[in-house]
Amino acid sequence: MVSLVTGGCGFIGSHIVDRLLSEGHDVRVIDNFSTGRPANLEHQKENPNLHIFQMDIRNRDEIADVFQNVDYVFHMAALADIVPSIEQPWEYYSSNVLGTYNVVECAKEAGVKKLVYAASSSCYGIPDEFPTKETADIRPQYPYALTKRLGEETVLHWGQVYGLPVITLRLFNVYGTRSRTSGTYGAVFGVFLAQKLAGKPFTVVGTGEQTRDFTYVTDVADAFYTAAISKIRNETFNVGSGGTYSVNRLCELLGGDIVHIPKRPGEPDCTFADTSKIEAALGWRAHISLEEGVAKILENIDYWREAPVWTPDSIGKATKAWFEYLGEK
What we know:
By secondary structure, the chain is α/β, with parallel strands linked by helices. The chain is built from twelve helices and 13 strands. The chain has helices spanning 11-22, 60-63, 83-87, 89-110, 143-162, 188-197, 217-229, 247-254, 276-282, 290-299, 312-318, 320-326, and strands spanning 2-6, 26-31, 50-54, 72-75, 114-120, 166-171, 174-175, 202-205, 211-212, 215-216, 235-239, 245-246, 258-261.
């Protein structure tokens, strides 16, 4: 089998590459290294079945040849983060929407067996019910969520109109080794781990009683692989841990002092995936508990040693646009 992973040097993408190589696939990676890190696949550099192409999915002519004779496409490449999406919406639209158009067009022309898209649970905005089903209202709160949703709509539409076999997976709060170490403030694990290494308190938003469906990255990689090789097509599934955990509980597991910062508009008090659909259709469910996942991260904490150390003041400056645009008008 030949598989292509866009964004394959990124956090989740690199774990999918590892899984595919372990299954004997010949793996091609497209990554422009805007957020992905070559170091994330350094341990695979001698593997003859791995081929990395430094390219941008926004350039269709450049990437088209890489899709030839590919069986499975895992479309992970995207820009993340809330604040930059507010400040630079075109960058997000061009990457997450137009880039996705290029990927599905190339996949269609190459006749791939399946394309699996990394959708985002942020499309639900602030849901009315928990656990949240795939049928919940779509309410993106900021441009990142909107562009990921428009990318998902594009993928599903190419499945509907052009017969491209697709599955979209709405991911909930993925964490684990190789998660982002840089970028504008937002990813809780990267922030907390750098603070722990620097001996600084964890910057907890609001009371810390808000809960998140923290899902370990290798469970997520397993969901992508399971979806790709299945006979299911043109479906959307939530991918979550089966539970929801408070930020305070995360701080307990990481071990450290806490300082509170203001609650932010547009963020739900809870994220919690209803995973009954993916369990019934694909037989997939998460296996790694939050306690196990945090232990794995702490074993590899040096990865975050060069990450920026955020303080309440620097967070306030970095999230100014968040409150300005998403706060009450």
